[in-house]
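tmp note - dTDP-4-dehydrorhamnose reductase
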Amino acid sequence: MAEPLDILITGGQGQIGLALRRLAWPDGVVLHAPDRSVLDLSDSASIGAAFAGVPYAAVINAAAYTAVDKAESDRDAAFTVNAAAPGLLARAAADAGAAMVQVSTDYVFDGAKCEPYAEGDLTNPLGVYGASKLAGEQAVLAVHPRAIVLRTAWVIGPDRENFLKTMLRLAAERPVLRVVEDQIGCPTSAADVAETLKTITLTQIAGPGR
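out:
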């Protein structure tokens, strides 16, 4: 029997984490999604203990501080979760020879471009949330040479609060809806994000040319 492929999913109770856990994975893949009481991403010792106990083949970091507005007054917490923790995870993954996939955001850009952003476009975050996520990307790539960063935008799905669920709820409660009209984005299904993450992760595990 082939050895199991252990994959660590952080943020397993969020939209993307739950979508990842619902997917059909190949035989032999074992998903681990410990909660905060088991794995403290701000504590290098906690991360080290997690890697000491399981031979992870890959890490998908979907954990994030996502309160965009609150981050402006809670900078330390945002940078701890979105910047420091990914760096610690990536270092542990690199030391263990595990693949690393970091989930990031379109908030690393300033939104001034009129067309969809590409990977090579210059980053220019306008707020603390975007700055913390960009710092997380940089921390991961600095310590893990094969890490992949996936930037998402306007993730929607059946779990947790999101723009679509809020609009559906308000539409049922109010005769007229008033929303901002100066924002442009790309609503993205959490299930589609999860499927893409699965493909990237399995490709990274297989190695170059597979």
